[in-house]
Amino acid sequence: MSEEQSKYDKAEPLYERVLAIRKKVLGAEHPNTALDLCNLAFLYIGQGEYDQATSFLERALAIFEKVLGSEHQNMTKSLQALAICLRTV
């Protein structure tokens, strides 16, 4: 296992833990929960796991659009990341 992969392997459970706590405390459709979904997606992008990243980004986008509106800055950043994933798959 490369040192870089080891870093991802250590980070992933931490991101998942943060997401679980955020869902429990704030709810599954809170904007901060969506940001945590994005953080996991960016982790997966860094690992080249674009299908998994796409799933997390789509969930985050649905929350952002519902709660913040389609023109919020979090929408644009997430859409850009999703475009990268879709282009790469």
**CATH architecture assignment name:** Alpha Horseshoe
Would you tell me the structural class of the helices and strands? mainly alpha
- Range of helix content: over 70%
Mean pLDDT: 92
Form type = flat
List low-pLDDT spans: none
CATH fold description: Serine Threonine Protein Phosphatase 5, Tetratricopeptide repeat
- When the domains are counted, the total is 1
What would your notes on this structure say?
By secondary structure, the chain is mainly alpha-helical. The protein has one domain: Tetratricopeptide repeat domain (Serine Threonine Protein Phosphatase 5, Tetratricopeptide repeat, Alpha Horseshoe), CATH 1.25.40.10. The protein is 85% helix and 0% strand. The protein is built from 4 helices and no strands. Helix 1 packs antiparallel against helix 2 and helix 2 packs antiparallel against helix 3. The two termini are 24 Å apart. Keywords: Coiled coil, Cytoplasm, Cytoskeleton, Microtubule, Motor protein, Repeat, TPR repeat. InterPro entries: Kinesin_light, TPR-like_helical_dom_sf, TPR_rpt. This is Tetratricopeptide repeat-domain-containing protein.
